Amino acid sequence: MSWLLLFVAGLFEVGWAIGLEYSDGLSKPLPTAGTVLSLAVSMVLLARAVQDLPIGTAYAVWTGIGAVGTAALGIVLFDEPATSARLLFISVIVFGIVGLHFVSGGY
């Protein structure tokens, strides 16, 4: 269950990171509220997950999910470059997340 909480926390991290773009420097009330809510949910779920998972592993996975998701949505939503090198390094992060999951006893 802790791995599921951690995964969902990572998705909410993507939500608040993308929300920063839509909130225009936290100047737009509705996107700002969504950003703050996503940040709070992400932190609460991370805190719950680290009750059972090592903090180093959980934090690395959480930030990795956030980085991969935010980079992917940046490409899709904001026309950020999708170069071969960028996609390669994003995939390296994915392999790191999966690797940490398996060597930490996650299934």
Automatic annotation (TrEMBL):
Endoplasmic reticulum among keywords: no
Compartments it resides in: Cell membrane
Superkingdom per UniProt: Archaea
Membrane topology: Multi-pass membrane protein
Transmembrane feature ranges: 33-50, 57-78, 84-103
Keyword Coiled coil: no
GO MF annotation terms: transmembrane transporter activity
Pfam family, one: Multi_Drug_Res
A single cellular component GO annotation: plasma membrane
Keyword annotations from UniProtKB, A to Z: Cell membrane, Membrane, Transmembrane, Transmembrane helix, Transport
UniProt cross-references to InterPro entries, sorted A to Z: EmrE-like (IPR037185), Small_drug/metabolite_transptr (IPR000390), Small_multidrug_res (IPR045324)
Protein name (database record): Multidrug efflux SMR transporter
Organism: Haloarcula nitratireducens
